[in-house]
Amino acid sequence: MPLRAKPRKHGLRTSVTLASALLPIVLGAGILYIQAERTLEQSTRQTAEEALRQFELMLDNTAQAARELLPLAGQSCIDVNLALREQVTRRPFVRSTNLVWDDSIYCSSLFGDYHEKITPGDYVGGRLLLMKGNPVTPNTALLVYRISDGKRGAMSTLDGYHLSNVLRLIGRQTLLALHVGPNWLTADGQFHEGETPDFPVAQIQLDSSRYAFGVEAGFPEGETWRYMSSEYPALFSLLIFFGAVAGFIGHVLQKRSSSPTHEMKRALEALEFVPYFQAVVHGDSKKVSGVEVLMRWNHPTEGLVRPDLFIPFAEHSGLIVPMTRSLMQQTAALLAPLSASFEEPFHIGINITAQHCQSLELIEDCRAFLDGFAPGSVHLILELTERELIESTAITQQLFDQLHGLGVKLAIDDFGTGHSSLGYLRQFSVDFLKIDQSFVAMIGIDTLSSHILDTIIELAHKLGLAMVAEGVETQAQSEYLTDHNVNFLQGYLYGRPMPGADFISALSGH
Q: At residue 16, does pLDDT exceed 80?
C-alpha cells in the first residue's frame, strides 16, 4: 500500500523559506568578507613595504654621515666641530652628529665639547637606538645610528618628527609603527616601550634586511566590515535581491512539494516503475550467470525517467519500500516461467536501502519472490546501497540472519567508494563485493586506481567473498579482471540495461 506523504507544518515551511533567503546572503557576505580581508592584507603589506623602503633611505643618509665622520674621531672637538655641523647641513633628516672616544661622546654638533657616557649594549645590533628624546627636545623621539672602530666612534641622529611624518603620510588609514628592539614609535610621534602594538585586522610585521629595525602594520577592530560597507554597497544590494529570489523560489517549491509525492504514488499504482535487466556474466566463461534488476520510471508523458531523478526522492518520501516490492513482483512474473530451463542457479540482484532494514517485512517479500521460481533455480542477491547509512541494530541483524536462512545472499554495492563499506564488512555477513565502475574505468590508465582495485580484489580473496566488477566496457578491462580471478563481470561490453521482454529475447538468443 503506497505511503502517504506528511504535509509540512507552517512553522517548518517558514523556516525553510527564511533559510533559502538567508543562504545566498550569508554565503555571499562570507565570500565578500574573505575578499575584503585579502584586500586589506595586501594593503598593509604594500604600506609596510613602502614604509620600510622610506626608513632605509633615511638611514642611508644618516649612516653615510656617521661613516664620513668616523675618521675624525679622536681629534680635538674644536678642529672637527665644523665638519660635524656640515654633515647636519648637507644630510637630509640628520638632526645632529657626535664623535665618540672610548664609549664617551666628547664632541657634538649641537653643543661642541660634550661629555656623556654611552652603553653600546643599548644599541640594537650595536648600531641603532630609538630614544624618547634628549635634553634639547625631551618629548621628541630620536633614532640614533652608531658606528665604531676600536675606541673611535661616530653617531648621527635622525629626528623623530621625520619618522612619525613618514608613518602618518604613508599609513593614512593604515596603523603603522616603527620598532627598534624593545622600543617603538607610532604615527602620532609617541614613544613606547615593551611589546609592539596588536593590530586586530590584517596585521603584518616586516624587518629590514639592512638595518636593525622593523615595521608593524594593520587596521583597527571592525575595519573589514567598514571596508565592505564602503566598497561593496552595490554587491550587498545584489545579495539581498538574490536572497529574496531564493526565498520566493523556496516558498513556491514547498507549496508544490506534495505534487511529486502524489505523482509517484500514482505511478506506483499504475505500475509505471518497471524493471530493466542488465546481464552479469561469469568471469572465465563469459556466459550469462544472472542479472541486476534496475528500476526505471516509464512516465506516460515524459517517457523514460532517469533513476537519479526519482530514486533519491523515493527514499526521502518513504516510497522506496513499496516500489521495490512492486519491482520484485514484476521481476518474478517475467523470469519465473524460464526458471525450469536454468542449467545452474541464476543470480538476480536487487538494490535495497536503509529503509528496507528497519523492519522484517523484507523477509516476506523475499520469500514470496523465491516461491515464484522453481526450487534452487535462482540466487536472490540483495545489494546494500549507501545513499543512506544502514545501521547495525538488533532488527538489522535479525533481518539478515533470517534472509541468509532463506538462502538470500548479501552484496555491498559500489564497494570502495562509500563511507561505510569496510564497516559493512565488519558488521554484516556479506557474500559479494561489487567493485565500483570508477575503478574498473581506470584499468591501464590510472596507477593509483589500479592499486586500489588490486587491494580490493586481494581483500575479497582473503575474506572468501565473491566479486562482481561493474562498468566493464572494454576487452582490456575484461581480460584484466579475468586474470585477477574476479568471479563475475557486468557492463556495456556484455549488455546495456534493457526491458524484461528484450532481455528474455536476448537471453534465449545467447
A: no
Topology annotation, domain 61-161: Beta-Lactamase (3.30.450)
Q: Does the structure show a pLDDT above 80 at 158?
A: yes
**How far apart (Å, rounded) are the C-alpha atoms in residues 142 and 153?**
18
Alpha helices of 420-498 — where are they, by DSSP H?
Answer: 421-427, 437-441, 447-463, 475-483
Q: What single letter denotes the amino acid at residue 172?
A: R
- What is the overall mean pLDDT for the chain? 86
> For the chain, what percent of residues have pLDDT higher than 70?
94
pLDDT of residue 2: 34
Dist. CA 402–CA 359, nearest whole Å: 12
User: For residues 321 and 360, is the Cβ–Cβ distance under 8 A?
Assistant: no
Over 238-307, what HEC string results?
HHHHHHHHHHHHHHHHHHCCHHHHHHHHHHHHCCCEEEEEEEEEECCCCCEEEEEEEEEEEECCCEEECH
Span 277-293+320-509: which CATH code? 3.20.20.450
Going from the C-alpha of 481 to that of each of 281, 411, 468, 477, 504, the distances in angstroms are 12, 18, 10, 6, 27
Tell me the three cell numbers of residue 272: 509505471
* pLDDT, average across residues 96-117: 91
The 10s digit of each residue's pLDDT in 236-267 is 778 787 878 877 777 676 665 456 777 888 88
In whole angstroms, give the CA distance from residue 388 to residue 501.
Answer: 32
Q: By C-alpha distance, which of 460, 165, 65 is closest to 283?
A: 460
pLDDT in tens, 53-83: 999 999 998 999 999 999 999 999 999 999 9
CB-CB neighbours of 299 under 10 Å: 15
The DSSP 8-state label assigned to residue 124 in this structure reads B
SS3 label, residue 154: strand
Q: Which three cell numbers stand for residue 341?
A: 530451463
Instruction: Count Cβ neighbours within 10 Å for each residue of 249-268 and write b for 16 or more, e otherwise.
Output: ebbeebeeeeeebeebbebb
**How many CA within 13 A on the CB side of residue 231?**
14
What are the backbone dihedrals phi and psi of residue 207, each rounded to the nearest 5 degrees, phi first?
Answer: -110, 140
Cα–Cα distance for residue pair 478/495, rounded to 1 Å: 13
Sign of CA dihedral 29, 30, 31, 33: positive
| Res 226 pLDDT > 80 | yes
pTM: 0.51
Contacts of 343 (CB under 8 A, 6+ apart): none
> Domain residue spans in the chain?
39-55+171-223, 61-161, 277-293+320-509
